Amino acid sequence: MKSDECKPPKPDKAWALFLDVDGTLIDIAETPSMVAVPAELPQLLAALGRALDGALALVSGRTLSDLDGLFAPLALPAAGQHGAEMRLADGSIEKCSIRSPELIRLLARITEFAADRPGILVEDKGLSIAVHYRLAPQYRGDLQRLIATELASSRNALETMAGRCVFEVKSRNVSKRTAVEYFMRTAPFLGRLPVVLGDDRTDEDGFAAALARGGHAVRVGTGNATLADWRLASPAAARAWLSGIADILNGT
């Protein structure tokens, strides 16, 4: 991995860009609904997509509908819920997971747990669950033990990932790696060099997919061990770098 100050390499029109959202393109807020999308960001993403002949996708823990709300009027190729739902470049939607009985049971237990613990936010995303404790960090250990106990009886169907003040539970058969690999088998991503940007543990699977194909992984933020071979300091730095890519590839 390169140093925290080392910027990624010069862009190439043969790249395929895969971008996480929270903590990568936009700053994390106290709750997911409180994030602020910089006014210029949708236009920047559109310009990048044009420069790469459409080979740009969002790869996020958010749902597809949530992503569309953030970046309207754009409806980009995207992997929602860590790859549980996919929108391809032709606009078609693929469901790569199901709402399993195990997930439904876990949601009920977590919702019950959170009911009398103010500050815990439970997001039912349909095919995954996110449990945010940023406003109630004192419950982190209890939440972790509860989820671990419930997952032990899930017949290995589910897994949990610890992010920034959040536990995310999803089907074990989908990840940001499977999402990137899925895109790379389809036009216009096919045959390109994958470049994945992310900021968190949940993005490491996407990094692995890019590196396995000879591509690049870019970690946004400092600290923490990572597979990434490059770093950018913050979402603002990531947006500035992406803006430079758009300018270079569009010849402006």
What is the molecular shape?
globular
Helix content range of the residues, please? Answer: 25-40%
Strand content: 15-25%
Order of helices and strands: EHEHEEEHEEHEEHEHEEH
Radius of gyration, CA atoms, in whole angstroms: 18 Å
- Identify the CATH homologous superfamily of the largest domain: HAD superfamily/HAD-like
Q: What number is the mean pLDDT?
A: 93
* Name of the CATH class of the largest domain: Alpha Beta
How can the largest sheet be summarized?
8 strands, mixed
- Domains counted in the coordinates: how many? 2
CATH topology of the largest domain, which one?
Rossmann fold
Low-confidence stretches: none
How many separate helices? 7
